[in-house]
Amino acid sequence: MAKSASSVDWLNRVFGDSKYSDLTIECGESTWHVHRVVICAQSPFFDKACSNGFKETSSKLIKLEDDDPTIVREMLRYLYTGDYLEQTKEGEEGSRRSALSTNVHIHTIADKYDIPALGDVAISKFSARAAREWKTEAFAGAIEEMYTSANENKEPMHKAAVAIAAENAKTLLNDDCGQAFRKIAEAVPKFAAELSIEIVNMKEKMPPTFARYRCPNSMRCNKVNMLEGLGQASGSRTCTYCSNQYYVNVWVSKKLDD
Ligand SMILES: [Zn+2]
User: What are the BTB domain coordinates in residue numbering (predicted)?
Assistant: First the structure.
């Protein structure tokens, strides 16, 4: 959301200010006095709740029963400021939710209340952070959450996680730091399947590798050719210099370097 600096300033001040508030949102123990013009303009869900014949219309109160108050708060912060905080405290136990996990929850609530722009912000924040934190247990935890959440449109979030996991698969699948990751891959077959597909697709997308091969016609030519991908190739190749043809396995025996 490209909001100008000045609009962010005054919206920031208005967020949490009950003056002129015309709508109350309740979740758990938390209450927010908000402004319909801000909330309803960005969320068809809240727009409907405020304009239809729901009981919310007269009471000007919307109760969100099944949500996490810290995530609702960040959703509201986004609606006022165009951004949210990734690091939030988990409910009553005070245990800390990882920032990666917060992004997953934000993406789910954005889908629930029909705020696609917030969902996009959550994906880009998730990707940026996961690119730095893919070795952590938090990355594994976030993957588990996104594959088990009630979010109906979680495919883009899956793609973001799978892309980063595939890029670092060699380490995650072999090294100590990947222990938590491997547990999740075992526990969530859909993730393991999507990861495998992504790794295969990545291999196909890789640019061809060239290597140097000396012409097997050592008496008359012996020149060095640059040939592409002979590792898994079949058939024969022609020397650029003497035009002799040799089978791939003959060329491979004349390979100069790895
Ligand atoms: Zn040759």
Answer: 21-88
* Residue 250 Cα to ligand 1 middle (Å): 12
* Residues in the 5 Å CB sphere of ion ligand 1: 215, 217, 221, 239, 241-242
* Domains of the chain: residue spans and CATH: 1-85 (3.30.710.10), 115-206 (no CATH), 210-252 (no CATH)
pTM: 0.74
By three-state DSSP, how is residue 162 classified? helix
**pLDDT tens-digit readout, 35-92:** 999 999 999 999 998 887 555 556 688 999 999 999 999 999 999 999 999 976 554 4
Q: How far apart are CA 121 and CA 119, in angstroms?
A: 5
Where would I find the H helices in 60-188? 69-81, 99-112, 116-133, 137-148, 155-167, 169-174, 179-187
Distance from the alpha carbon of residue 231 to the mean position of ligand 1, in angstroms: 20
Q: How far is the CA of 206 from the centre of ligand 1 (A)?
A: 29
